[in-house]
Amino acid sequence: MKQLLIVEDDAGLNQGLCKALKTDDRLLTSCRDLKSAREQLLCGNADLVLLDINLPDGNGMDLLQEIKANTPELPVILLTANDTDMDIVNGLEQGADDYITKPFSLSVLRARVNTQLRKHLAPDKHEPTRIGHFYFDFQNMIFRSGDTCIELSKTEQKLLYLLVENRGRVLARGELIDRIWTDGAEYVDENALSVTIKRLRDKLGTQEYIKTVYGIGYSWVNTNE
Q1: Residues 44 and 72 in one domain
Q2: How many separate domains does the chain show?
Q3: In terms of residue numbers, what domain contains 20?
Q4: What pLDDT, on a 0 to 100 scale, did the predictor assign at position 174?
Q5: DSSP 24-42
Q6: What's the CA gap between 10 and 168, in Å, rounded?
Q7: Structural domain contains residue 28
Q8: Residue range 140-192, pLDDT digits in tens
Q9: 25 and 95 inside one domain
Q10: Per-residue pLDDT for 34 more than 90?
Q11: pTM, whole model, 2 decimals?
């Protein structure tokens, strides 16, 4: 039984979301403010949080940061009327797993909720990856180049994971965008991938490992490990 926590202050929309997302194997818990949402989260039973940003007793972004600090594996989908590019980028960079703007399609919402539940159904328990002088522990979010610890954003971690787990294979730009930024959400500019690649190379010093395959995408080249 999966438990979804819906945090939305509009009573009608809250009720509609519960009705739209209800299935035989789901338990829906709804809250209309941050206080009651925090109380529900203390129970530790939530499998996904659908979170509004503008709430009567504060900003949902504060709750997002608390969730990601305490339970980073818990998926959070922001559902909000804040629809500027800056709002969306900020929400994703703060750790949101997806960002849906109002008004929205219930069918699209259901699909995105299902996608997040599938992604987090069986978290990876793989051992840390060692490649040359690099050490990548995706489970505990520890990344080292030699003896230096490197702090990576959530987006950078996702990109690194895909490249490392598929090393030797060329990953197309479209595939990377689809798998990193909420399964191909329309608002993602392809330039975001180029920027993230550059940041990852600069932070880790992986210029000779992460190769650009012009006109196609990127690859972590095979090396003597």
Answers
A1: yes
A2: 2
A3: 2-119
A4: 82
A5: TTEEEEEESSHHHHHHHHT
A6: 49
A7: yes
A8: 889 999 999 999 998 899 899 989 988 888 888 888 887 787 544 445 666 88
A9: yes
A10: yes
A11: 0.56
